[in-house]
C-alpha cells in the first residue's frame, strides 16, 4: 500500500487540500444561497467558494478512485485499465490540486 502511495508523489499536497477543504466547508456550513440578501459581492463569493469546494471534493474522489483502481489492478492484472497512464494522471492531479489550493487561498483572502 505504501508502495502505491509513494508512486503518486503529491500526497502531502492532497492532504493539504483536504485540510483547506475542511476549513472551507466549516466557513460555508449553515450559510444558504441568498443568505446575504441583495449583497451581490457576498453572494458571488459564496457561490465561488461552493464551486471550488465541489471541485476539490471531485479531485479527492478522483484520486481515491484511481488509487483503488491501481490496487485492484495489482491484484488482478486483467483488471488494469490500460487507458489510464499513471504519469499523466499524476501530472494532471498535481496541476488540479495546485490550482484548487490557490483558489481556496484566494477565497480565504477575500473572506
Describe the structure.
- By secondary structure, the chain is mostly helical.
- The chain has one domain (2-110).
- 77% of the residues lie in helices and 0% in strands.
- Helix 2 runs antiparallel to helix 3 (40-75).
- The relative contact order is 0.18.
- The mean pLDDT is 81.
Name a few traits of the molecule.
mainly alpha; elongated; 0% strand; 4 helices; 111 residues
Per-chain topology:
Elements: H1 2-8, H2 11-28, H3 40-75, H4 86-110
Helix pairs in contact: 2-3, 2-4, 3-4
Main pleated sheet: none
How would you spell out the order of helices and strands?
Answer: HHHH
Please state the average pLDDT score: 81
Number of separate domains: 1
Task: Give me the count of strands.
Answer: 0
Low-pLDDT windows of residues: none
Structural class: mainly alpha
Helix content: over 70%
Strand content: under 5%
Instruction: Tell me the distance between the termini.
Output: 39 Å
Question: What overall geometry do the principal axes of the alpha carbons give?
Answer: elongated
List the total number of helices: 4
Radius of gyration: 17 Å
Provide a short characterization of the protein structure:
By secondary structure, the chain is mainly α.
Amino acid at each position: 500500500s505504501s508502495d502505491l502511495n509513494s508512486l503518486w508523489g503529491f500526497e502531502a499536497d492532497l492532504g493539504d487540500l483536504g485540510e483547506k477543504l475542511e476549513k472551507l466547508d466549516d466557513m460555508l456550513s449553515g450559510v444558504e444561497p441568498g443568505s446575504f440578501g441583495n449583497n451581490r459581492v457576498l453572494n458571488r463569493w459564496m457561490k465561488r467558494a461552493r464551486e471550488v469546494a465541489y471541485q476539490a471534493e471531485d479531485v479527492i474522489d478522483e484520486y481515491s478512485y484511481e488509487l483503488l483502481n491501481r490496487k485492484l489492478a495489482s491484484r488482478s492484472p486483467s483488471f488494469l485499465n490500460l487507458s489510464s497512464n499513471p504519469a499523466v494522471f499524476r501530472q494532471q492531479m498535481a496541476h488540479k490540486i495546485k490550482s484548487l489550493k490557490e483558489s481556496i487561498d484566494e477565497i480565504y483572502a477575500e473572506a
